[in-house]
Amino acid sequence: MTTVLPVPSTAPLHTSVPTAAVRRVLIANRGEIALRIIRAAHDLGVKAVAIYTRADSDADFVSLADDAWLLDGNGPGETYLDIDKILALAKRSGADAIHPGYGYLAENALFAQAVIDAELTWIGPPPSAIELLGDKSGAREVAEDVSAPVAPGSDGAVADLAEAAEVAQRVGYPIVIKAVHGGGGRGFRACASADDLEGAYTAATREAQSAFGRGECLIEKQIVRPRHIETQCLADAHGDVRVLSTRDCTLQRRNQKIVEEAPAPFLSTEQERIVSEASVRILAHVGYVGAATCEFLLGTDGTIIFMEANARIQVEHTVTEEVTGVDLVAWQLRIASGGQLPESFPPVRGHSIQFRINAEDPSTYFPATGTVKNHRAPAGPGVRLDSGIGEGSVVGTDFDPMLAKLIITGADRNQALARARRALDEYRIEGVSTLLPLHRVLVAEKAFAEDFEVWTDWLETTFVNPLAEPQSGDHMSTATDSFSVVVEVDGRRMTVSVPKDVISDLGHVPSPSVPRRKRSLSRRGAQLADDSNSLNAPMQGTIVSVAVSAGDTVEAGDTLAVIEAMKMEQPLKAGHSGTVSEVLVDTGTSVRSGEPIVRFAA
Asked: What fold is seen in the domain 526-600?
């Protein structure tokens, strides 16, 4: 499917088309997306320069690049978000272009302009388009200007909680609170009633400030039980805009995608037309150049609203590549060199599903850390693995938890799901907990695999996670109670589960990727066990707020504190009523996994 529409006469078309071919590109990113860009560059005969932190010194993207330079510093703020450092390394390395990947500075208009001012080629849209689309209130205005469907809401960012309450009252609950700057599900909160508004607004603005450096948020009417639909687009500097495929990204947790597929299943021809034509109008209106994704919500009644446009390559670009045969990253490089899009791209053929392999506990969705000790990749027909890890890779809390992407393609959705079941069963990562066990459950879940009766918060509100069960008092611990070992008995090979305490005196105990202890999944946050006298940190992170003091009486479900790890916030809730005897942390305190945060009177 390629959608081609006339460009509106009001579109700010580009008058200067880049003519110099990109020859040496610096990749301002890390992990699997850096590898993906390196490979696309090499396919086109372009040299690739990696920049890396000390933690990634042995990573594949560093060794496979033609040149690699140390990006000194700790955490994103001192490394992949430091514009001056990145530009200095680009100059020193002799790069003539910069590709931002996704995340970090990919949608930062100041960075894009700084790259251009440094007389380097920016592989992305012009700063003006980033400004218009990166600001959700601006993107909403653009959508309205081109008659794309939008939800009722505020006129731009709300000034404060009082204005948020006024807008919510006008449009009616439920509402969503969305960070004006940034995306990826951060700075986003749903709010069902006025009673929840203050907490949701405070959390959204705080998380937006932490993730994007700006806390402004806007308000929109919420569509209940929506599907997340999007379009993959390319635009060139000659004024051409193409839609290559639709995608569905409905399976999410914490408003962040974990499964994506192309094309979006069970869309009517009319629904596909609406989202495709709206996407072309929006991108043409802002003079867009490069790869882009336009995101929409589809209600159960067929209502479609434009949500946002992402001015970058998406994590899930892979599934569009699989069903069209188009290398989207290579096209980013061609477009940046002045290339023009063809009249049409190959039509969609088959079906592709991507599974994000995140370092997370599959029963709680908490970020996990560790060292990869055993890595066995799946193979066979229809299997693609975009991975940034291998044996020995260290997974910490400084960067995004995504380790790899497993992309499965078949002649149709049923074949893709069948191949996914096989590939997920083959895939092994040990030493750090991942979402692999959850994905194995999801591909067998009738609501997803057969009926497609899922919506964006289905995982958190309706799905019964079989990996979870009532926890004991030390449920926050990352330790496991058993591990697997392969043995032979009378020539027959088998895998058995051995209790840890049976061999604890033998020394090192492996850490399986599939936790044998199953933990409960709270619908809105970690809960304190009913028989526990303390609330412990479920992960290494930073306390961003404390809601109780010594002497306070709390009820089951009350939020006691909020912890942040990998730029994601997680509320920590009481599992039973009680009286707080001691609060052991303050806002800003760094904690280790399992460290006590709040104690209760016995």
From this structure: OB fold (Dihydrolipoamide Acetyltransferase, E2P) (2.40.50)
State how far the Cα of 601 lies from the Cα of 590, in Å rounded to an integer: 24
pLDDT in tens, 134-164: 888 889 999 999 999 999 999 889 999 999 9
Helix ranges restricted to H, 337-403: none
Is the pLDDT at 317 greater than 50, yes or no?
yes
- Backbone phi and psi for residue 207, each to the nearest 5 degrees, phi listed first: -65, -40
Residue of 347, 332, 337 whose CA lies nearest to 293: 332
Encode 210-270 in three state secondary structure. HHHCCCCEEEEECCCCCEEEEEEEEECCCCCEEEEEEEECCCEECCEECEEEECCCCCCHH
Name the strand (E) or helix (H) holding 92. Answer: helix 83-93
**CB-CB contact of 447 with 458 (8 Å):** yes
pTM of the predicted structure, to 2 decimals: 0.80
Q: What is the pLDDT of residues 414-452, one digit of tens each?
A: 999 999 999 999 999 999 999 999 999 999 999 999 999
Contact between 12 and 125 under an 8 Å Cβ cutoff? The reply is no
243 Cβ neighbours under 8 A, 6+ residues apart: 1, 2, 3, 231, 232, 233, 276, 279, 280
CATH superfamily, region 152-221: ATP-grasp fold, A domain (3.30.1490.20)
